[in-house]
Design the sequence.
């Protein structure tokens, strides 16, 4: 089974690229982030015609997550249990988490972790609280079943190591690299969920995101903030992985690249 995660940065704007990606990389299950649309605004016909089932969770023009699968899609759950809320200006809560069971009993979470904005912004403690809810859900699942097949995929908005950003000096005093954020990410790992891509693709210079401004992509000035974290059962099933950097190229690209993992249970 080939699974992947991709912050698509608007599903409506990049449907052509999405369909092409699924075909080119022969992806079975794809977790999407930043759909930027309500379900009623999305035409999913092309995905369905290609043999995929689709679950989406979007509440407005921001955030939004989805799961696309051609190996089954059941037990869909919107929102992360115990997660804090951050009401938008129109009173609609952010859509940042979606779970479903696919394939041979693999529980997939598509996650778009809050950005945090600035270190002194109220969004920052909200981000840390959100991470704690994620840790708690992962720990609860493995406490109930240590052999559970579970994967946490998405845009974590944290660069866990110094090598995960192009210049630590540039990020001094900013979010994504602060110690509390890194500790929160590590707490999820310590709950039993390892980064299954880094062992085969260590840094520095291995990134998943490049800002649109300042020619960051051609200058190779990126960040590694998109991850596939697997439970012990998933870790043992990994047969390969890669970051599809080519998807960041060309007209109309997302600012993130897909992260792809091959599993064999």
Sequence:
């Amino acid at each position: 089974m080939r699974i992947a995660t991709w912050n698509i940065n608007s599903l409506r704007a990049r449907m052509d690229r999405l369909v092409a990606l699924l075909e080119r990389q022969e992806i079975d299950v794809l977790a999407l982030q930043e759909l930027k649309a309500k379900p009623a605004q999305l035409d999913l016909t092309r995905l369905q015609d290609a043999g995929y089932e689709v679950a989406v969770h979007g509440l407005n023009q921001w955030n939004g997550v989805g799961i696309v699968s051609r190996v089954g899609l059941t037990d869909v759950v919107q929102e992360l249990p115990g997660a804090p809320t951050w009401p938008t200006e129109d009173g609609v809560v952010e859509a940042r988490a979606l779970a479903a069971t696919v394939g041979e009993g693999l529980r997939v979470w598509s996650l778009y972790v809050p950005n945090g904005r600035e270190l002194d912004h109220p969004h920052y403690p909200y981000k840390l609280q959100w991470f704690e809810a994620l840790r708690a859900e992962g720990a609860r699942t493995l406490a109930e079943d240590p052999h559970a097949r579970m994967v946490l995929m998405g845009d974590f908005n944290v660069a866990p190591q110094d090598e995960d950003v192009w210049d630590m000096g540039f990020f001094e005093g900013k979010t994504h690299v602060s110690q509390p954020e890194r500790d929160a990410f590590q707490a999820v790992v310590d709950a039993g969920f390892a980064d299954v891509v880094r062992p085969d693709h260590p840094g520095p210079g291995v990134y998943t995101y490049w800002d649109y401004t300042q020619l960051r992509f051609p200058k190779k000035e990126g960040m590694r903030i998109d991850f596939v974290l697997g439970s012990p059962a998933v870790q043992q099933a990994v047969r390969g992985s890669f970051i599809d950097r080519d998807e960041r190229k060309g007209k109309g690209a997302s600012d993130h690249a897909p992260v792809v993992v091959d599993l064999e249970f």
About this structure: The longest strand covers residues 106-112. The helical segments are 15-25, 45-49, 123-144, 179-190, 232-237. The chain has one domain: 2-263.
